Amino acid sequence: MNRTYEYDVVVVGGGTAGVSAAVGARRSGARTLLIERNAYLGGEATHSGVGAFCGFFSCGENPVQVVAGVGEMVLEEMKKLGPTIDVIISAVGNKNINFQPEYLKCAMENLLDKEDVTCLLHARVIDANVENGTIQSILCVDDEGMFTVRAATFVDTSGDANLAHMAGASTNWGDADGNVQAATLPFRLSGVDTSQDMTPAAVERAVKKAKESGIPNLTKEKGFILKKIDSNIVSVLLPSVIPQGMTAEDLTEMEKNTRKQVLYYVQALKTYMPGMENCELAMIGPSIGFRETRRLVGRETITVDDVLNRRKRDDSVARGGWKPEIHKDVNKMGTYLEVTGGSYFDIPLGALQSADIDNLYGAGRMVSSDEAAFAAVRVMGTCFATGHAAGVAAACQALNGTADIERVRAELLRQNALV
After folding, report:
1. For the residues of 157-204, what is the DSSP string, one character each?
2. Mean pLDDT score of the chain
3. Taking the model in full, what pTM does it have?
4. Overall average pLDDT of the 94-114 stretch
């Protein structure tokens, strides 16, 4: 049976950027389809069990909110499900939002239903039909077979620029030497006495003792333990590996490697970290969490100078409040390039538009940026903002033939985004 679907806007990838893009496009009046290959929404927030939204607020002292719009709508849906989020100051002094990933899955589905966005889970994009620099349709597969989806515009929020890659759009992999940031597999522990010291320094003391005692397969010595108020469950961000590629062989080796690390980190923490004596392994993130793989080559590229100087622009469609956070060593925490507290930089529309595919937008951690700037735009709070902007721009192009910047900005403001 030949199944064919037609929409104005198709969004590929149901993470923070993808949900925002789909809602933004639908609220702009476009018939919108969201395609997600997994069984639930949320991207790295739910697949990898990260448990914290960085980037809703600017870094450091005097934090200001830089993300609203659909990101704020998701937080409101979370609040309706109970005490599922906490606004906290992190161990390094930044204002973040800790959340419960299992509730996030449901909150995102509730929001898509309310906004009348069509969503297909368990659907994977396997090819793109491109003619004269424009994606005409994409080929997808589910357990029943293959189907075709046609649209006027497409938004790639896959995180790994999978649609862009299939369409032949220009992408980058890491820095000039092809090196990308470390990937991490978070895990959750229950039965933790969170009144004890859970800072990165405490983690480092425990892991160093574990290494000295001969416990194998431990990489990063210093990392974050994310707590939730009035809970004995924590998320641990330690097992790490440097991605070399995206083949099944590459991904299999990374998943096996980091899952093995989890088991030894549990042993290390139970033995050497106060408060962890009675902990139990509650969950290993369903999949490894990537910080960086492919990213889009856009009509414009955000530079590290834009980020550090907190550049403001007339063609801004989103704000970024984070600072470059670079994870290139699997044995160490990230390094940071400092910025002025309470400040933000503007993200231009051109950084979300493919340089060589006329109707392709990219958002989330594949936004067009140089290596150091990327380390600031990749966080999930900013992914909400760039996804929202890409969805609105894609809808404007689909419905009006062009993504006029003033029209896009006006629509984003109407939808309560911060631009």
Report:
1. -SSS-HHHHHHT--EEESSTTS--PPEE--EEEES--TTS--SHHHHH
2. 95
3. 0.95
4. 96
